[in-house]
């Protein structure tokens, strides 16, 4: 299958204000410990940065309810519900954090979720889906779909707008968001108004290495990504990685999907996967709004650069 690109990236240098941190390795023999260490480090760093920003006092006004829901064979999933201070009914965004399907939890994205809730006057539901390798494909994805179904079923209790049920995710969570949109269409499930895909992994098993992977995937630009190795085996296991719910880019039919709001950092190995999926959606008649953070790395929205807030405001403006 041939894929075109939504636009042809310049693959430029990292912006001077960006701190380039090398990628860490994942020790599967000590994964539980690694999860705690990495999460604590990143959450503390992001929290320290945002506390020095003028916007921080506004973010503390957002109430967060930590609760659970149960679905299927008595599977219980924790969720964090961010409640805006403005009048409703509100858009309701169900969000899936990233972390290579194996790392992090909602606390990783906390201040960004607060920002969207505060300035987008939105209810945000951040999903603590089950992680690989303990739960392989499609376990975490089904958790994510169930969270959207739960939000749809409880949208009046949330003071939400039933016509503005949104899904979103970043990196591997962006993979979930794109797949959930496909699942909702195919299963005639919840009516999703928009899908927000931030630097999404859309191809779990690329046919060839992309230019962005070749330029930025060595691990010197925060994220190590090499499609030649079985990088996500811990999640995919023996599943067909080119099935549409595993790799949305390989879906034969993406017509009838909700409009997409796609964000990318220019210096991200996953950049080309995002721009190819954007083109695929556009070719099928799906509206795409795209933001490119020039000179930015993978997951740049969690930093406090000017372009981080520019990207966040782009999201808020498209809720």
From TrEMBL:
Residues 93-301 form the Alpha/beta hydrolase fold-3 domain. It holds the Pfam family Abhydrolase_3. Keywords: Hydrolase. One of its GO terms (molecular function) is hydrolase activity. It comes from the Bacteria. Gene3D superfamilies: alpha/beta hydrolase. SUPFAM superfamilies: alpha/beta-Hydrolases (SSF53474). The keyword Hydrolase applies. Signal peptide: none annotated. PANTHER family: AB HYDROLASE SUPERFAMILY PROTEIN C4A8.06C (PTHR48081), ALPHA_BETA HYDROLASE FOLD-3 DOMAIN-CONTAINING PROTEIN-RELATED (PTHR48081:SF8). Belongs to the 'GDXG' lipolytic enzyme family. This is Esterase/lipase 16. It comes from Bifidobacterium goeldii.
């Amino acid at each position: 299958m041939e894929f075109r690109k939504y636009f042809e990236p310049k693959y430029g240098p990292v912006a001077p204000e960006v701190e380039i941190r090398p990628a860490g390795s994942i020790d599967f023999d000590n994964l539980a410990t690694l999860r705690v260490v990495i999460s604590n480090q990143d959450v503390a760093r992001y929290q320290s940065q945002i506390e020095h920003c003028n916007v921080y006092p506004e973010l503390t006004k957002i109430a967060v309810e930590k609760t659970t829901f149960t679905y299927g064979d008595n599977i219980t999933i924790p969720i964090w519900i961010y409640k805006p201070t403005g009048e409703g009914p509100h858009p309701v965004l169900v969000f899936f954090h990233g972390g290579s399907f194996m790392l992090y939890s909602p606390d990783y994205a906390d201040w960004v979720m607060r920002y969207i809730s505060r300035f987008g006057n939105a209810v945000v539901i951040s999903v603590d889906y089950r992680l690989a390798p303990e739960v392989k494909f499609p376990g975490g994805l089904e958790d994510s779909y169930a969270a959207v179904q739960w939000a749809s079923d409880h949208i009046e209790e949330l003071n939400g707008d039933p016509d503005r049920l949104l899904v979103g995710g970043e990196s591997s969570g962006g993979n979930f968001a794109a797949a959930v949109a496909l699942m909702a269409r195919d299963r005639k499930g919840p009516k999703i108004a928009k899908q927000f895909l931030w630097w999404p992994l859309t191809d779990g098993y690329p046919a060839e290495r992309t230019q962005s992977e070749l330029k930025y995937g060595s691990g010197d630009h925060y994220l190590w990504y090499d499609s030649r190795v079985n990088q996500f085996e811990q999640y995919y296991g023996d599943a067909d990685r080119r099935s549409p719910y595993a790799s949305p880019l390989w879906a034969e039919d993406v017509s009838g999907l909700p409009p997409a709001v796609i964000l990318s950092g220019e210096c991200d190995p996953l950049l080309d996967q995002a721009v190819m999926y954007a083109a695929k959606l556009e070719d099928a008649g799906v509206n795409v709004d795209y933001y490119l953070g020039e000179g930015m790395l993978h997951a740049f929205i969690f930093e406090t650069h000017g372009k981080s807030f520019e990207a966040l405001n782009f999201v808020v403006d498209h809720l």
